Amino acid sequence: MRFGRAVIIGGSMAGLLGARVLSDFFEEVIVLERDPETGGPEARKGVPQGRHAHGLLDAGLQVLDTLFPGLVREMYAEGGERMDMGRDAAWYTSGSWKPRYHSGIELILCTRTWLEWKVRGRVSALRQVKLRSGCSVEGLLLDEAGTRVTGVKVRSAEGEELLAADLVVDAAGRGSRAANWLEALGYGRPEEEKIGLQLAYTSRFFEPPAQYRGDWKMMAVFPRAPEEQRGGFIARVEGGRWLVTLHGYFGDHPPTTDEGFLEFARQLPKPDIYEAIREARPLTEAVMHKIPSSRLLHFERMERFPESFVVLGDAVCALNPVYGQGMTVCSLSAKLLGDTVGRQAEVSPGSLKGLARDFQNKLARLLSIPWRMGTTMDLKYPQAEGQRYPGLGLLHWGFGTLIDFTSVNTLACRQFYEVMHMRRGMEAFLRPDLLAAFAAYGLKSFFVPFPQRANVHTAPRAPA
User: Fold this and answer.
1) Which of 26, 218, 251, 438 has the lowest tally of Cβ within 10 angstroms?
2) The dihedral of CA 164, 170, 171, 176: what is its sign?
3) pLDDT exceeds cutoff 60 at 50
4) What is the pLDDT of residues 437-452, one digit of tens each?
5) Closest C-alpha among 37, 19, 36 to residue 28
6) Separation between Cα atoms, residue 308 and residue 60, nearest integer Å
7) 385 CB-near residues (< 8 Å, 6+ apart)
8) What integer is the mean pLDDT of 42-53?
């Protein structure tokens, strides 16, 4: 038995993936997008981060391949770069280089705009889905009892309308007004965790120099907190281009001028990115995007929450983009929404009662690991604004030592990638052989200086 109509606020990746999973259970799914329709993979005002480097980690790639059979293969055929995380990534992070090996953990390297355009094409072809551009959602509609959302107020070039829905999904990203709407309707505001970083990143496309012979498909040079706060990233993307993104925290932001961009790259913790791009030909102007903070809203903790309204994507959890988790978390969140609605249809045919609370509770559990992994490291910076809880210093030492350990122990690096790519939880590290080796390394850290116990200097070569 199908439900009636679902309305999704926001037409970026979270909204599109939400539309795909809901199309299995609703007669009609309407996606409301504020931006006008584009004719191709173009940057949009509503997704200012779209022109910068993004990553779809292994777990997110698996979701995409499941929801849209053949899409990943199609993207590889059209220029998306297939990458093995262990073999094809030259990755320097937190002061050391990661080993190179065949990991079996796969990513696709492409631009955000192209990926979203490809997904949009698949979603728009679904019979149940209707994409409406140039629409602004001004608020939620409630039933007479004030307990259930029944639709949304929409403003467009045609005027205002009240659009009825059996389920409303807010996937409007960082610009979501869900918290304000709920407060205005008498539900109060969700608790908010926020880590102030004053981050900015600057990106531009380059044509790789003909004489450059790098053995990587992705190179990352990330800072070691709290001593360093500059980083950079190169990815091979469709069209044979390099997408280069530089970032800096706390006002130390990468310039957009030619000279400033190169000089910032030269002053990264390692010179490898600078050496790669100094002879490369710029294809576009450099563009900057600023992220003042990462943020997590605890809708699941609200004492009252309306029926038939759910929030997902960056509207709930806007992560530090440097760690590349956002698109994968978005994909897994959409899959979770589909699974939750599917379970609801089995146990309560024709009824959505209890769905909203159930989904927000499950989503909170899904978000806990990527949120804690990212914010734990961010809070190593004394300038970072955010609540520091008891035991954080010990957690900093443990997690930081683990990352150092991954530079000299391939098994530890493999398990770290499993967790980072959201294929497994932290139980991945609970192997007796790994725990024993890590304990020995942790003891060593008290007596041996960091440069003598981690791979600080040598960028490993790709395996044959």
Assistant:
1) 251
2) positive
3) no
4) 999 999 999 999 999 9
5) 19
6) 26
7) 194, 195, 196, 293
8) 58
Query: For 353-393, how does the pLDDT look when each residue is reduced to its tens digit (9 = 90+)?
Result: 999 999 999 999 999 988 988 898 899 999 999 989 888 99
Please name the residue that has the structure tokens 């696709």. Answer: 108
Helices (H) and strands (E) in the chain, counts: 14, 19
What pTM value is reported for the model?
Answer: 0.93
Task: Tell me how far apart the alpha carbons of residues 10 and 33 are, in angstroms, rounded to a whole number.
Answer: 5
**C-alpha–C-alpha distance, residues 198 and 228, integer Å:** 15
168/147 Cα distance (integer angstroms): 14
> What is the C-alpha to C-alpha distance for residues 194 and 300, in angstroms, rounded to an integer?
16
Q: Where are the alpha helices (DSSP H) in 142-301?
A: 178-184, 258-266, 272-277
H helix or E strand, kind and range, residue 452: helix 450-453
Cα separations (Å) of 334 from 33, 83, 314, 327, 339? 17, 24, 12, 11, 9
